Amino acid sequence: MDYGEELTAYGDFIKGTCNLMCPVNERKLRERERLLHPLERLEHPVSDVSNIIHTKRNLRRNGNYLADPNKIVKSFSRSAAGHKMPSPSDLRPFPALDMTVSYLIREIACNNIHTAGWVDRYNFVTDRLRAVRQDMVIQNLPSVDCIKLLKPMVKFHVFAAYWLCESPINVFDPKINSSFLQECIKRLLNMYDIIRKTANRDVTVDFNQAKKQLVYKGEYCNEEHLICALYLILNLGNAEALNQGIARLRFYGGCCQSCIESQAFEVSIASWHGNYNKVCKLIRNLSPLLGMAAAINLPSIRRHALIVMSTAYNNKTLKFPIDVLEETLMWNNQNQVVQDCKYYGVVVEKTEDTKLYARFQKETFNLHVKQLPPFRLQWLDKTLSDVALAKILADHC
């Protein structure tokens, strides 16, 4: 069957037939062009003495490495003018995509997080997940399948945004990661809306599809609360996110009053009102995943708080204890408080008893400097071992 016949056979949308994590054609191409990532290489390719001469010749030509069929994953390839649509043999159906996402999250992303080399794993997983989304869109997979693929991607990008937030820009670009995160979470929320509307629609549907939709009332419903809570925390105080949250809380009624989404909604409302003290108190009670999402927004919360305090405590005789400021706005130590205060123009003084105080003056606060980047929180880091991360990212993966 040639390419044209394949397209005709599979209808309006191409259906993939590759059951591996990487198509054979791509594997051969990347071996030939030496485009294998270190995580995809076969460490000990010589297994048969009778083939040792042929193997050595291949090793020399391919930069001393061959691809491990169990580790190589399809890489992202940007579509461009003049490129024809991919063949079904180059696209992975849902079972292969699900297997790929599970492998990337469980075996790659959840290991060695405390080493400096984890950023290489992040770059590898990010690229391969983009390829998964590309295959998913080209095939127009059902919403129930898209949800299972997108859910771990959202969690992964939230963790990466937090874990690598202190890395230099040439190592980790938070804006690019944020764009991937927003793309995944908005698409995921849209899929939940489609599933909810379809499950409630009184029409005749395929039995297997109806069975999948009924699961929404259990697993999908609980997971939707988590993803919606993440969306609220990532967009603290955002009017659009709050309006969507209000609509969902009304839809679910009393069953959602004590759920995780209700907690996130309370944090976002407090942020919208400018109540930074309440925001920080509520953040301490969030789950680790939501806590990581909230930590990304803490620089904005702190800056707003310092602006408010520069007006409220605008008096030459008033002093505010640095240790209280540290506890209230969730800094790790007093050195960080002093550095941030000086950056924004807040005067810090040391008294005779060696205690540090901030002296707020409205006219000295610098509104023109860029917002400081986030940093990791010590109390949150203690909960993130390799085992805990696997539970957070790979749960239901």
In short:
It is built from 17 helices and five strands.
Q: Any key phrases for this structure?
A:
single chain; 397 residues; mainly alpha; three-stranded antiparallel beta sheet; two-stranded antiparallel ribbon; 5 strands; 57% helix; globular
How would you describe the overall organization of this protein?
The protein is mainly alpha-helical. Among the domains are: 10-75 and 86-139, no CATH class; 288-381, no CATH class. The chain is built from 17 helices and five strands. It is globular.
Question: In terms of topology, how is this protein built?
Answer:
Elements: H1 3-9, H2 24-32, E1 41-42, H3 52-61, E2 66-67, H4 94-109, H5 118-139, H6 143-163, H7 174-200, H8 207-214, H9 219-234, H10 239-252, H11 260-273, H12 276-283, H13 288-312, E3 320-321, H14 322-328, H15 334-343, E4 347-350, E5 356-359, H16 378-381, H17 386-394
Antiparallel strand pairs: 1-2, 3-5, 4-5
Helix pairs in contact: 4-5, 4-6, 5-6, 6-7, 6-13, 7-9, 9-11, 9-13, 10-11, 11-12, 12-13, 14-15
